[in-house]
Amino acid sequence: MRRLLHTVLFALAFACACNGGPLRYKLEVVGEYPHDTGAYTQGLFFHDGQLYESTGQYGESSFRKVDLATGKVLRKLDFGRKYFAEGSVMLDGQLFILTWTNKLAFVYDAESLEYIKTYSYPREGWGLTTDGSSLIASDGSSRLYFLDTSFHLHRSITVKKDGRPVRLLNELEWVDGKIWANVYMTDMIVIIDPKTGEVEGMADCSGLLPGKLRRADTDVLNGIAVSEDGKIFLTGKNWPRLYEVKLVPAGK
User: What is the pTM assigned to this prediction?
Assistant: First the structure.
Protein backbone atom coordinates (compact mmCIF):
# COMPACT_ATOMS: atom_id res chain seq x y z
CA MET A 1 0.00 0.00 0.00
CA ARG A 2 2.83 2.41 0.80
CA ARG A 3 4.31 1.70 -2.63
CA LEU A 4 0.95 2.54 -4.20
CA LEU A 5 0.73 5.79 -2.24
CA HIS A 6 4.28 6.68 -3.27
CA THR A 7 3.34 6.03 -6.92
CA VAL A 8 0.32 8.34 -6.63
CA LEU A 9 2.46 11.11 -5.14
CA PHE A 10 5.12 10.68 -7.82
CA ALA A 11 2.43 11.01 -10.48
CA LEU A 12 1.18 14.13 -8.71
CA ALA A 13 4.62 15.77 -8.76
CA PHE A 14 5.16 14.78 -12.40
CA ALA A 15 1.81 16.22 -13.43
CA CYS A 16 2.53 19.47 -11.61
CA ALA A 17 5.88 19.78 -13.36
CA CYS A 18 4.34 19.12 -16.76
CA ASN A 19 1.13 21.12 -16.42
CA GLY A 20 2.30 24.02 -14.28
CA GLY A 21 -0.34 23.62 -11.59
CA PRO A 22 -1.60 21.37 -8.79
CA LEU A 23 -3.20 18.06 -9.64
CA ARG A 24 -6.77 17.74 -8.38
CA TYR A 25 -8.14 14.72 -6.61
CA LYS A 26 -11.47 13.43 -5.38
CA LEU A 27 -11.92 10.75 -2.74
CA GLU A 28 -12.87 7.09 -2.91
CA VAL A 29 -14.08 5.73 0.42
CA VAL A 30 -12.74 2.23 1.06
CA GLY A 31 -13.69 1.85 4.72
CA GLU A 32 -15.40 3.58 7.63
CA TYR A 33 -15.08 3.34 11.39
CA PRO A 34 -16.90 4.76 14.43
CA HIS A 35 -15.70 8.13 15.71
CA ASP A 36 -16.66 9.83 18.97
CA THR A 37 -19.07 12.68 18.24
CA GLY A 38 -17.75 14.36 21.38
CA ALA A 39 -14.28 14.61 19.83
CA TYR A 40 -13.65 18.10 18.44
CA THR A 41 -10.74 16.81 16.38
CA GLN A 42 -7.59 18.94 16.30
CA GLY A 43 -4.83 16.41 15.69
CA LEU A 44 -4.90 12.85 14.34
CA PHE A 45 -1.97 10.49 13.76
CA PHE A 46 -0.66 6.94 13.96
CA HIS A 47 2.41 5.96 15.93
CA ASP A 48 3.69 2.38 16.09
CA GLY A 49 0.40 1.18 14.65
CA GLN A 50 -1.71 2.98 17.24
CA LEU A 51 -4.20 5.77 16.48
CA TYR A 52 -4.02 8.94 18.59
CA GLU A 53 -6.19 12.05 18.60
CA SER A 54 -6.12 15.45 20.27
CA THR A 55 -9.39 17.33 20.74
CA GLY A 56 -10.20 20.97 21.44
CA GLN A 57 -12.77 23.26 23.07
CA TYR A 58 -12.35 24.94 26.44
CA GLY A 59 -13.34 22.55 29.19
CA GLU A 60 -13.38 19.58 26.80
CA SER A 61 -9.81 19.40 25.46
CA SER A 62 -8.11 16.01 25.62
CA PHE A 63 -5.52 13.68 24.15
CA ARG A 64 -6.70 10.16 23.37
CA LYS A 65 -5.37 6.74 22.54
CA VAL A 66 -8.09 5.30 20.30
CA ASP A 67 -9.01 1.84 19.04
CA LEU A 68 -9.44 2.25 15.29
CA ALA A 69 -11.90 -0.60 14.80
CA THR A 70 -14.38 0.42 17.50
CA GLY A 71 -13.64 4.11 18.11
CA LYS A 72 -13.28 3.29 21.80
CA VAL A 73 -11.02 5.60 23.83
CA LEU A 74 -8.35 3.38 25.40
CA ARG A 75 -6.67 6.14 27.36
CA LYS A 76 -7.43 9.82 27.81
CA LEU A 77 -5.57 12.86 29.12
CA ASP A 78 -7.84 15.77 30.03
CA PHE A 79 -6.72 19.40 30.07
CA GLY A 80 -7.81 22.16 32.42
CA ARG A 81 -10.75 24.36 31.46
CA LYS A 82 -8.48 27.26 30.52
CA TYR A 83 -6.71 25.26 27.79
CA PHE A 84 -7.81 24.70 24.20
CA ALA A 85 -5.71 21.79 22.89
CA GLU A 86 -4.73 21.74 19.23
CA GLY A 87 -2.38 19.71 17.01
CA SER A 88 -0.31 16.83 18.35
CA VAL A 89 2.48 14.49 17.23
CA MET A 90 5.12 12.11 18.58
CA LEU A 91 8.85 12.47 17.86
CA ASP A 92 11.99 11.09 19.53
CA GLY A 93 10.04 9.35 22.27
CA GLN A 94 8.02 12.41 23.19
CA LEU A 95 4.46 13.59 22.63
CA PHE A 96 4.01 17.25 21.70
CA ILE A 97 0.67 19.07 22.00
CA LEU A 98 -0.01 22.68 21.02
CA THR A 99 -2.59 25.02 22.54
CA TRP A 100 -4.59 27.52 20.54
CA THR A 101 -4.23 30.91 22.25
CA ASN A 102 -2.59 29.97 25.56
CA LYS A 103 0.86 30.34 23.94
CA LEU A 104 1.99 27.09 25.53
CA ALA A 105 3.08 23.70 24.21
CA PHE A 106 2.99 20.58 26.37
CA VAL A 107 5.44 17.67 26.24
CA TYR A 108 4.77 14.14 27.51
CA ASP A 109 6.54 10.81 27.41
CA ALA A 110 5.27 9.04 24.28
CA GLU A 111 5.14 5.61 25.91
CA SER A 112 3.71 6.35 29.35
CA LEU A 113 1.96 9.65 28.49
CA GLU A 114 3.46 11.09 31.66
CA TYR A 115 3.92 14.87 31.72
CA ILE A 116 7.47 16.15 31.07
CA LYS A 117 7.50 19.89 30.41
CA THR A 118 5.71 23.01 29.22
CA TYR A 119 7.24 25.39 26.68
CA SER A 120 6.28 28.96 25.86
CA TYR A 121 5.02 29.24 22.30
CA PRO A 122 5.03 32.59 20.47
CA ARG A 123 2.06 32.15 18.13
CA GLU A 124 -1.34 30.51 17.90
CA GLY A 125 -1.14 26.73 17.84
CA TRP A 126 -3.13 24.99 15.11
CA GLY A 127 -1.76 21.87 13.35
CA LEU A 128 1.34 19.83 14.16
CA THR A 129 3.23 17.04 12.38
CA THR A 130 6.81 15.87 11.86
CA ASP A 131 9.13 14.93 9.01
CA GLY A 132 11.03 12.65 11.39
CA SER A 133 13.56 15.28 12.43
CA SER A 134 11.65 18.55 12.89
CA LEU A 135 8.27 19.49 14.25
CA ILE A 136 6.14 21.25 11.61
CA ALA A 137 3.42 23.61 12.85
CA SER A 138 0.67 25.78 11.40
CA ASP A 139 -0.91 28.85 12.96
CA GLY A 140 -3.94 29.49 10.77
CA SER A 141 -2.01 31.67 8.34
CA SER A 142 -0.30 30.67 5.08
CA ARG A 143 2.96 29.90 6.91
CA LEU A 144 4.36 26.62 8.19
CA TYR A 145 7.07 26.56 10.86
CA PHE A 146 9.88 23.99 11.21
CA LEU A 147 10.93 23.66 14.85
CA ASP A 148 13.24 21.55 16.99
CA THR A 149 11.90 19.60 19.96
CA SER A 150 12.54 22.60 22.23
CA PHE A 151 10.32 24.70 19.91
CA HIS A 152 13.19 26.77 18.52
CA LEU A 153 12.42 27.94 15.00
CA HIS A 154 14.71 26.60 12.25
CA ARG A 155 12.88 27.98 9.22
CA SER A 156 9.44 28.73 7.83
CA ILE A 157 7.76 28.60 4.43
CA THR A 158 4.81 30.39 2.87
CA VAL A 159 2.35 28.02 1.24
CA LYS A 160 1.24 29.24 -2.18
CA LYS A 161 -0.98 28.06 -5.00
CA ASP A 162 -0.32 29.67 -8.37
CA GLY A 163 1.72 32.35 -6.63
CA ARG A 164 -0.97 33.28 -4.08
CA PRO A 165 -0.81 32.46 -0.36
CA VAL A 166 -3.09 29.69 0.92
CA ARG A 167 -4.37 30.78 4.31
CA LEU A 168 -6.15 28.98 7.16
CA LEU A 169 -3.82 25.98 7.09
CA ASN A 170 -4.90 23.76 9.96
CA GLU A 171 -4.34 20.06 10.76
CA LEU A 172 -1.16 18.65 9.20
CA GLU A 173 0.22 15.26 8.18
CA TRP A 174 3.59 14.27 6.71
CA VAL A 175 3.02 11.86 3.81
CA ASP A 176 5.95 10.44 1.81
CA GLY A 177 7.95 13.65 1.77
CA LYS A 178 5.01 16.05 1.41
CA ILE A 179 2.90 18.00 3.88
CA TRP A 180 -0.84 17.52 3.72
CA ALA A 181 -2.95 20.27 5.30
CA ASN A 182 -6.64 20.81 5.93
CA VAL A 183 -7.74 24.29 4.85
CA TYR A 184 -9.95 25.36 7.76
CA MET A 185 -13.66 25.92 7.04
CA THR A 186 -13.37 24.18 3.68
CA ASP A 187 -13.57 20.60 2.39
CA MET A 188 -10.14 20.91 0.78
CA ILE A 189 -6.82 19.27 1.61
CA VAL A 190 -3.71 20.73 0.00
CA ILE A 191 -0.52 18.75 -0.66
CA ILE A 192 2.57 20.92 -0.17
CA ASP A 193 6.22 20.78 -1.19
CA PRO A 194 8.05 21.28 2.16
CA LYS A 195 11.00 23.00 0.51
CA THR A 196 9.20 25.58 -1.64
CA GLY A 197 5.76 25.80 -0.04
CA GLU A 198 4.17 25.25 -3.44
CA VAL A 199 0.82 23.43 -3.51
CA GLU A 200 1.30 20.38 -5.72
CA GLY A 201 -2.09 18.76 -5.24
CA MET A 202 -5.59 19.45 -3.94
CA ALA A 203 -8.03 16.83 -2.65
CA ASP A 204 -11.72 17.72 -2.69
CA CYS A 205 -13.33 16.06 0.34
CA SER A 206 -16.82 17.51 -0.09
CA GLY A 207 -19.59 15.05 0.63
CA LEU A 208 -17.32 12.74 2.62
CA LEU A 209 -19.69 12.77 5.59
CA PRO A 210 -23.25 12.17 4.31
CA GLY A 211 -25.89 14.71 5.24
CA LYS A 212 -27.97 12.06 7.03
CA LEU A 213 -25.14 11.62 9.58
CA ARG A 214 -24.82 15.32 10.36
CA ARG A 215 -26.20 16.79 13.58
CA ALA A 216 -26.50 20.32 14.91
CA ASP A 217 -23.01 20.14 16.44
CA THR A 218 -21.32 18.46 13.45
CA ASP A 219 -18.43 20.71 12.45
CA VAL A 220 -15.86 20.92 9.66
CA LEU A 221 -13.45 18.44 8.13
CA ASN A 222 -10.30 18.29 10.25
CA GLY A 223 -8.14 15.25 10.82
CA ILE A 224 -5.62 13.52 8.54
CA ALA A 225 -3.74 10.38 9.56
CA VAL A 226 -1.66 7.99 7.47
CA SER A 227 -0.88 4.56 8.88
CA GLU A 228 2.52 2.92 8.65
CA ASP A 229 1.24 0.79 5.75
CA GLY A 230 0.16 3.87 3.80
CA LYS A 231 -3.59 3.92 4.41
CA ILE A 232 -5.19 7.38 4.53
CA PHE A 233 -7.77 8.21 7.22
CA LEU A 234 -9.89 11.38 7.46
CA THR A 235 -12.45 12.69 9.93
CA GLY A 236 -13.86 15.96 11.23
CA LYS A 237 -14.83 17.81 14.35
CA ASN A 238 -17.64 15.96 16.18
CA TRP A 239 -18.05 13.57 13.24
CA PRO A 240 -19.62 10.15 13.89
CA ARG A 241 -17.32 8.47 11.36
CA LEU A 242 -13.65 8.16 10.52
CA TYR A 243 -13.05 7.22 6.87
CA GLU A 244 -10.32 5.30 5.10
CA VAL A 245 -9.96 6.84 1.64
CA LYS A 246 -7.99 6.71 -1.57
CA LEU A 247 -7.15 9.67 -3.79
CA VAL A 248 -8.54 9.47 -7.32
CA PRO A 249 -7.35 11.95 -10.00
CA ALA A 250 -10.21 14.29 -10.86
CA GLY A 251 -8.66 16.17 -13.80
CA LYS A 252 -7.92 19.85 -14.10
Answer: 0.90
